[in-house]
Write a structure and sequence with these properties.
Radius of gyration: 24 Å
Distance between the termini: 44 Å
Number of helices: 7
Mean pLDDT: 82
Low-confidence stretches: 1-5, 7-16, 350-359, 380-386
Strand content: 35-45%
Structural class: alpha+beta
Shape: elongated
Number of strands: 26
Helix content: 10-25%
């Protein structure tokens, strides 16, 4: 994984009290690696927990936190830090306690991650990650299958109601979603194209990141390379992720009804791989999805393709999740992020701090020449309690 974020922290030893806050990521309980620290109403997370939140890595030896997008350099007992070579200011500084590096939670602001803190819990909503390269399908790669919403495979007719078809029409004709369904009759055509793609970039450099799941909580980030092989009989994929190897034989025929009724081989490959990763995660962590069965699948057409499927934990009451497979196309590789979120995740807006308000007002003052507006801004500044 490309290391574009670098956090360097020079620390000194202090002692702050720990608190038993609950932490939720996208509405799902998160298992802290180290207990939270709170001092002067400021919350601190360990560096490894910050890395887990941002789908990054932490090197204890080098005091480095990294993921694919930013470069941060921070110094202990120093509020100034560098974000992608731009100097910025933190209100608080990192510290070291019992050989654990702690970072103020406000650092999440610079990852564009929303969070909300009250007296009992810390709620964090991670954003959709973005592809560095915008992709569209190649018009030269279509299968021989001739499908449309008016001409679906016969087996689907028994599973779809008119309401479901109407919903599919509304979604797919908006140009925001690809439509997919299982169709193994085109497997050989798809595998022939996939075999060529696996010989070079970016399909010969695939990787996946996900958070481990156990007892209703998500935890440490796992990052693994993905290796895909096609069986000699052309009847299945043999997929290796880290030490795990599994077989996957389904093909998700994919097309974009707003553009064409033809099945797009390239996007069929992409959605098939994303669905295989979803089933891998579901099975690895003993989740189930039988009550959420659907014969149609939708994948967003944004620069980051997102395949989503609902699942649940049979051992935990009311543990229902949506599992997102985010496909990120970078310069030389493709990265898949498996993100778990609660189906009832609460969206929230962060309350602006006094410093944020002051900075905004001062910026307005510098840009304003109107006398009446200047007077109002000055009165507002004087009314803020320090």
């Amino acid at each position: 994984m490309k290391k574009n974020i670098l956090i360097v922290l020079l620390c000194f030893i202090v002692s702050f009290p720990t608190f038993a806050y609950e932490v939720k990521l996208n509405g799902v309980d998160y298992q802290l690696v180290e207990p939270l620290q709170v001092n002067d109403n400021t919350m601190y997370l360990s560096a490894v927990d910050i890395a887990n939140v941002v789908f990054g890595n932490y090197s204890r030896q080098d005091n480095l936190i990294s993921n694919s997008y930013y470069r941060l350099v921070l110094y202990a007992h120093n509020s100034r830090f560098s974000l992608n070579s731009i100097v910025k200011t933190l209100r608080y500084f990192p510290f070291l306690q019992q050989d654990v590096l702690y970072v103020p939670v406000e650092v999440l602001d610079y990852f564009d991650i929303e969070y909300y803190l009250d007296d009992e819990e810390l709620l964090i909503n991670t954003p959709i990650f973005y592809s560095l390269i915008k992709e569209r399908f190649d018009n030269n790669y279509f299968t021989s299958a001739d499908y449309s919403l008016d001409n679906l495979p016969p087996y689907l007719i028994n599973f779809l109601t008119e309401e479901q078809i109407d919903e599919a029409l509304e979604l797919t004709y908006s140009d925001e979603y690809y439509l997919s369904f299982m169709d193994n009759s085109i497997r050989e055509e798809v595998y022939t194209v996939l075999a060529e793609k696996l010989k070079g970039a970016p399909y010969n450099r695939l990787e996946v990141l996900y958070k481990e799941y156990s007892n209703g909580k998500i935890g440490n980030v796992v990052q693994e390379d993905i290796r895909i092989e096609i069986s000699p009989e052309l009847d299945k994929l043999i997929i290796t992720i880290g030490d795990d190897t599994f077989e996957y034989s389904n093909i998700l025929a994919t097309f974009l009804p707003s553009v064409t009724d033809e099945v797009i081989i390239e996007k069929t490959i992409d959605v098939t791989i994303m669905h295989s990763l979803y089933t891998y995660y579901r099975d690895k962590f003993d989740l189930r999805d039988d009550i959420y069965y659907t014969p149609l699948y939708f994948t967003s057409t944004d620069s980051t393709n997102i395949f989503a499927h609902d699942a649940y934990d049979n051992e935990k009451d009311s543990m229902d999740y949506t599992i997102d497979i985010q496909r990120l196309r970078h310069a030389r590789n493709i990265q898949y992020i498996i993100n778990v979120r609660a189906q009832d995740v609460v969206e929230f807006e962060q309350e602006a701090s006094v410093q944020d308000i002051l900075e905004d007002m001062l910026g307005d003052l510098l840009e304003t020449t109107d006398e009446e507006t200047l007077k109002e801004l000055l009165e507002s500044l004087l009314s803020i309690e320090q």
